[in-house]
Design goal:
By secondary structure, the chain is of the alpha+beta class. It has 28 helices and 17 strands. The strands form three sheets. It has a six-stranded antiparallel β-sheet.
Length: 656
């Protein structure tokens, strides 16, 4: 795991100095080694900071030159099947001098070409590759977007880096705020790819290769950051498409029995996890006690001769603590378990670190416990496996099953009637709804924060179709352009329905959209920045692309049962290793008691950032909608924690 950076067309006499500054800004991504490489004639500089995981010797040093001297690479990530690729290359007479996957990647690219080589790689990666023969710089990002890669322009120079801080330190960079991206951030709690919070800087989309020459970098004519822009003449190219995988899976589904599906998934996961247990440094896993992390840990332990090191954190606040569940699973599996109960003060002490850690506004408040569990794990290991991806692949989010039932009931009711009903529900505060629900709890299912859930339901009642209802569910600000000054929302994957996979089932469409938006831009971003802030490599075996492709071939009935049980086939795999009663409980998010903190110990901090005069002076937001939500939250009339947290995270980032 590493940090990478590069610059092309630099007019400075020493591009090595510029790229050295870029990688120095990302030092936590690679504290063990650093290096640069330049091609002065093209103003090219490549930089690398290394977190040594495989081949700890100098043979793994980067940037690395290929055997023939044609290619130079700066690479972040892991190619887990490098041993198999190496064996195939050796059968063709290729000789190797070290044991790193980087050397294997370069040899594969020389043998088969970039696109074919990348298609053979199993792993997570982002890299810049300079072809000295054709004078082309290619940027490549893994299929699911596990590893980050930003690119754009600083003056007339083309730049790229693992994190925005690597680009911001380039002297010619003009940090102009992208107001459209800010509106998207208010809505989603993250800035969706291909946008960044700055103009002229973009995220490379997952599964893409973007190739630039010195001449193209200067003109920018016909450029688009989106591979789906039919009007562009110069844009990224997809080598792997989640849309094609989803459509192909539905068109040619798995025809085996449920038992056969369970056995095949078990075998795929075992292989994916076994590959991700290869490391020359101490290795462990995050364990929450939920289905996804428990599957990962169970299959790690089944393939390990010693107890696997597992890590969890707990909170004293009721409704936010999974540590007890994790401890029970760890005891059952016999892992070497470490848990830490975090005092509220320690959790809140992370907040000032967030703007630097995430580089651009990021509003998923589970960023705090994710950092804390990464910090705990790093004291014992250098690599940790995580269970991310199971919800999106196997139907784990509650919205996948209750929204289908809800829409079936709502569809026959005229839209104006539904919208009116929603307004009536919202007229009563969440606290009053909660009190009413508690009095009727003997005849109703258990629901966390029922008052908030009623208000969320009410906001969805006026949706024109199920897809609009989904967009409402994932939106924290329904009309963010009414709050952000002088902007319009750019079109994104969520709003461009022509870019969606053609899937007739509503739940499948939600899973697909989460896979290509929420997963890479929120979940994987959160894990990457939190782990890299403490120089920990996080690996996500459920997102092995072969697991993803198999998951999309499974019929929905093997993921979501009619009674509303999500991740059905994944649960069946877990049943082979862990007793059902340890796992079978309502889903709990990895969160913090943000609502009460904002009314209590964080109130003064929040009030300073949300001050009416300050908002007017800074000129990014219209104060009215924000102040209204702040007053509603403080009074307890509404729980506005997540919408307010988005604004607070932008304000804290902007201040830093």
């Amino acid at each position: 795991m590493c940090g990478i950076a590069g610059i092309l067309n630099s007019r400075a006499a020493e591009p090595v100095r510029l790229v050295s500054e870029m990688i120095r800004a990302m030092r936590t991504r690679g504290p063990d080694d650093s290096g640069t490489w330049t091609e002065a004639a093209d103003g090219l500089g490549l930089g690398h900071v290394r977190l040594s995981i495989l081949d700890l010797s100098p043979n793994g040093h980067q940037p690395m030159l290929s055997g023939s001297g044609r290619y130079v690479i700066s690479y972040n990530g892991e190619v887990y099947n490098f041993a198999d690729v190496r064996s195939e290359l050796e059968s063709h007479g290729v000789r190797f001098y070290g044991h790193s996957d980087t050397e294997v990647m370069l040899a594969a690219i020389e043998r088969w070409g970039l696109q074919e080589a990348v298609s053979r790689f199993v792993g997570m990666f982002a890299f810049g590759l300079w072809d000295r023969e054709t004078r082309q710089l290619s940027l490549v990002r893994d299929r699911l977007g596990i590893k980050p890669l930003y690119f754009g322009w600083a003056g007339r120079a083309f730049v790229f880096a693992s994190e925005l801080k690597g680009i911001r330190c380039v002297r010619e960079f003009d940090p102009q705020l992208h107001r459209g991206a800010l509106a998207l951030f208010l809505r989603l709690a993250y800035v969706p790819a291909p946008f960044s919070i700055f103009q002229h800087v973009y995220k490379l989309m997952p599964g893409c290769i973007f190739t630039v020459t010195p001449e193209l970098a200067l003109t920018k004519e016909g450029f688009s950051p989106s591979p789906d822009d039919d009007q562009a003449t110069w844009k990224p190219m997809r080598y792997w498409s989640a849309r094609e995988v989803a459509e192909r899976g539905v068109a040619t589904p798995f025809h085996g029995t449920e038992v056969e599906a369970e056995e095949h998934l078990d075998a795929l996961l075992r292989q994916a996890i076994r590959l991700r247990m290869i490391a020359d440094v101490p290795l462990g896993a995050f364990l929450s006690g939920g289905i996804d992390s428990s599957v990962v840990v169970a299959l790690m332990q089944a393939q390990s001769s010693v107890p696997v090191k597992t890590f969890s954190i707990g909170f004293q606040e009721a409704g936010y603590n999974e540590a007890g569940y994790a401890k029970d699973v760890a005891k059952y599996l016999g892992t070497d378990h470490t848990e830490l109960y975090v005092a509220p003060e320690k959790a809140r002490a992370v907040i000032p670190m967030l703007p630097t850690m995430y580089d651009e506004p990021f509003g998923d408040s589970s960023q705090i416990p994710t950092f804390l569990v990464s910090e705990l794990a790093r004291k014992h290991v250098t690599v940790a496996l995580s269970g991310d991806g199971g919800d999106e692949l196997f139907g784990g989010y509650n919205r996948y099953f209750w929204s289908r039932r809800l829409w079936r009931r709502l569809a026959p009711i005229p839209q104006p009637v539904r919208a009116g009903l929603g307004s009536m529900i919202q007229a009563m505060s969440p606290d009053r709804w909660g009190n009413l629900y508690s009095r009727l709890s003997f005849m109703l299912p258990a629901v966390q924060r029922p008052g908030d859930q009623m208000h969320k339901l009410a906001s969805l009642l006026g949706a024109k179709d199920p897809d609009a209802m989904y967009q409402g569910m994932v939106s924290l600000w329904q009309q963010p352009t009414e709050t952000v000054v002088g902007t319009a929302e750019p079109q994104t994957t969520l709003t461009d329905r022509s870019s969606w996979a053609q899937l007739s089932e509503f739940a499948m469409r939600m899973m697909y959209l989460d896979l290509v938006t929420y997963l890479p831009d929120d979940i994987l971003t959160k894990v990457d920045r939190a782990s890299m802030a403490v120089s920990l490599e996080a690996r996500v075996p459920l997102l092995d692309h072969r697991v993803v492709e198999f998951a999309w071939s499974l019929p929905l009935s093997m993921k979501i049962k009619s009674e509303g049980e999500g991740k059905w086939v994944l649960r069946r795999v877990l049943d082979r290793y862990v007793s059902r009663e340890l796992i079978d409980r309502p889903k709990m998010g990895f969160g913090i008691p943000l609502d009460t903190w904002l009314r209590g110990p964080l109130r003064e901090w929040a009030e300073t950032l949300l001050d009416d005069q300050r908002l007017r002076r800074e000129g990014h937001f219209h104060p009215g909608p924000i102040r209204q939500r702040w007053a509603e939250h403080l009074s307890g009339k509404r729980n506005r924690q997540y919408a307010l947290w988005n604004v607070l995270m932008f304000q804290a980032w902007n201040e830093r």
